[in-house]
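Handout, section B. The chain below has 316 residues.
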Amino acid sequence: MKMLVSGASGLIGEALIARLESDRHTVHRVVRRAPAEGEAFLDVDKRRLDCSRLPGGNLDRIDAVFNLSGERITPTRWSAAKKERLRTSRVVVTDLLSRSIAATVEPPSVFVSASASGYYGDRGDEELDEESTPGRGFLADLCRAWEAATNAARDAGVRVVNVRTGLVIAKQSPLVFAQLPLFRLGLGPHLGSGRQWMPWISLDDEVDGIIHAAFTPTIDGPCNLSAPDPVRNKTFAAAFAKVVGSRSRYGVPSFVLEAALGRETAHETALASQRLVPRQLIETGFPFADRSLEHALARAIDPEGTRRLRRHSRAS
């Protein structure tokens, strides 16, 4: 099949393309530089998608579109300029792709577009499946607008899946990469009370979940991409420390995070509690490769970590 991927240079985009190509699909990238043959050019400033270098010069020969565009949400204070870049890279880009799909004579059969667990806001111990209401705050509002930007394609009769991704476990993901040195030194902390729920998913399951959503006709609308067993932040810190052979002895108080990141950023990222339930994946029989957080962390950090974890478990 012929696939179009936006956000191809990101962590998830690169992994998705590698998987699609290994399955012998043809992948066309959406780029913002001068396009090569077989690529589509996205001009955000002029609000247009140039498909002239795609086969046939349009989207008619594309079977599925994957939209993973979005500037990284970094744990730093969000200035007005940063918020606008986050909005443009998500909402404007998604709207451009959606309208381009809708204007196609023979549109792709499915449009899988990124969203995030931030849609639900900070919800304490409440279990959150795809039918749960949106939360409050900047990220919740951003995700709601992000998903609404796919409406043009949906109105044109295209099946649209909004994949609400949790925290991705991979060696190069911000969640792991930034904390690995601290945990290796035995300084890896839990954050705030440590009771907030973390909706995690391994990179392999993230990619396979996206593909599963694209090829499963009954999946329509929102789809939570997270492991079936979310963990509290203290449990995450303990698992991380165990995998690298140390302990998690410390915590960072909420007021320190508020001072470092700003109250808004701290409470919408590090301190937010989201107990996601991937109902759509479970009900359609998705075969999770990583149900254990410790196993996912061990595979991400170091292949030796899996064997060390097994030895530790036997000794216990």
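Note. The first strand starts at residue 2 and ends at 6. Compare this with the example in section A.
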